[in-house]
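Project standup — Tuesday

K.O.: blocked on the structure for the chain from last sprint. Re-posting the sequence here as requested.
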Amino acid sequence: MANTQLTSFPQYASPLRERIDGALRSYLRPRDGCPEALREAIGYGLLAPGKRLRPTLVLLAAEAVGGASEAAMPAACAVEMIHAYSLLHDDLPAMDDDDLRRGRPTCHKVFGEALAILTGDALLTLAFENLTKLEAPPRVVIACCNALAEAAGACQLVGGQADDIEAKEETLEQLESIHRRKTGAMILAALRLGALIAGADPRQQEALNQYGRRLGLAFQITDDLLDVQGEERAVGKRLGKDAKRGKLTFPGLLGVDESTARAEQLILEAGGALAPFDRRVERLESLARYVLERNR
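H.V.: unblocked you, prediction finished:
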């Protein structure tokens, strides 16, 4: 990576997370027609403890291009809303059937399955409502809506989840295809939104795309490794469930050592992709290192 002495992710993540959470809370004010139970469930899912990696990527991408991160905050919140909705639905009994998420009972365990489904639906639509409020030229708003819709849609996030449920081929190509869409698409979308809002040129956009593709895959590999090697209290969800369900994972296919080496190489390449930028990408570099170090 470009810089040998980087500001660590935790050093800057905490104040950024506070800003993001403050912005997210502003969308939870009572609104005419929204039932109180639904509003409470939305808050439970949206403000669950977490590092806020995806919205942070929106802000850091805008910063890397030379824009103001505050201008990208509505997009950062929209990305987190999509992420929260996807987790709520993934945890349902019909999907992954999880009872623990981010160290707390999953939404359907607290509010029931029907309200958890509706909460996800509400978050999905609220994300796009939020993007329309960007203080940006109409063409940028349209481009942001299109980028997020594509990333969250049938060929990316939803399609990846569908293939993950039905996966039968135990090949590296199939596994990478699933996670480029299920996990990587939203990470890439976060970077694209920040870049669009800040007015990135084609070279900058491509550099962030290359960084995001590698970061997204490395993130999933380390997530799979955590399911094998992590501590449940630190990870905040049930571990070992992938193996019990016979789910296709990187450690299951490649082994722990090769999976670890692959993640390390991807993070190295992600840092290299940022070469066209100056020191404004230091925080993107440290975030990439953090993704790798989650498993250490």
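K.O.: great, moving the ticket to review. The radius of gyration is 18 Å. Strands lie at 100-101, 104-105.
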